[in-house]
């Protein structure tokens, strides 16, 4: 257990930064829990999540702007999801930019779709920064509060903190694997 604590203390912020660059809800919740346990500091968890999410989604936007049609040609099963996102963009484009991080299953494809749309890059940058901040604070604090609830339920959480962190990581990994399998089944072997 001391080895796990050492890893979280020394590489937790980096893991949050990379995890939120790629997708990130699970790793950010774990970061919030670790902050409640005193292993990490909540303000740095939020900052790492904000930076990872902002830069990752900005990259996906510009990938969509430059190579969006090639991506659709490569993975045609993404077409239905892209069409769904494009319809939402037409109706609520500013709200989509602010809130897409909260829609599981559309989180990674939405900035690519936004890049393929006529949304101005300057508008995306501005709203992406605001949306990333809202998301980072909300999800990190959800993890932090989950840790507080577990402390209330379990009493002295110090005895259980590493087990709680491992358990939460396993649940997050299981959810991610199941969602990946379900998406592969739904989209004919390709996980969009």
Short description:
The protein is mostly helical. The protein has helices at residues 2-22, 25-36, 42-74, 79-99, 109-116, 121-154, 161-186.
Features of this protein?
192 residues, mainly alpha, 0% strand
- Tell me the number of helical segments per DSSP (H or I, 4 or more residues long): 7
Our Rg estimate from Cα atoms comes to 18 Å
Taking the alpha carbons of the first and last residues, their distance comes to 36 Å
Helicity range of the residues? over 70%
Mean pLDDT: 82
Q: What is the number of domains?
A: 1
Q: Which sheet architecture does the biggest sheet show?
A: none
Give the strand content. Answer: under 5%
SS content category: mainly alpha
Outline the low-pLDDT stretches.
none
Please trace the helix and strand order, writing H or E for each element. Answer: HHHHHHH
Query: What overall geometry do the principal axes of the alpha carbons give?
Result: elongated
**How many runs of DSSP E, i.e. beta strands?**
0
Describe this structure in words.
This protein is mainly α and 192 residues long. It has one domain (2-186). Helix content is 81%, strand content 0%. It contains seven helices and no strands. It has helices at residues 2-22, 25-36, 42-74, 79-99, 109-116, 121-154, 161-186. The relative contact order is 0.16.
Fold topology:
Elements: H1 2-22, H2 25-36, H3 42-74, H4 79-99, H5 109-116, H6 121-154, H7 161-186
């Amino acid at each position: 257990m001391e080895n796990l604590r050492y890893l979280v203390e020394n590489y937790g912020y980096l893991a949050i930064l990379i995890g939120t660059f790629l997708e990130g809800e699970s790793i950010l919740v774990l970061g919030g829990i670790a902050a409640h346990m005193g292993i990490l500091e909540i303000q740095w968890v939020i900052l790492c999540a904000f930076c990872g999410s902002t830069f990752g989604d900005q990259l996906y936007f510009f990938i969509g702007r430059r190579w969006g049609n090639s991506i659709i040609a490569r993975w045609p099963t993404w077409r239905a999801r892209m069409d769904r996102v494009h319809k939402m963009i037409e109706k609520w484009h500013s709200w989509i930019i602010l809130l897409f991080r909260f829609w599981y299953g559309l989180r990674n494809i939405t900035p690519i779709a936004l890049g393929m749309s006529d949304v101005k890059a300057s508008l995306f940058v501005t709203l992406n920064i605001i949306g990333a901040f809202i998301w980072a604070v909300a999800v990190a604090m959800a993890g932090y509060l989950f840790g507080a609830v577990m402390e209330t339920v379990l009493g002295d959480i110090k005895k259980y903190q590493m087990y709680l962190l491992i358990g939460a990581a396993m649940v997050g990994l299981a959810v991610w694997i199941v969602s990946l399998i379900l998406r592969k089944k739904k989209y004919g072997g390709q996980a969009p």
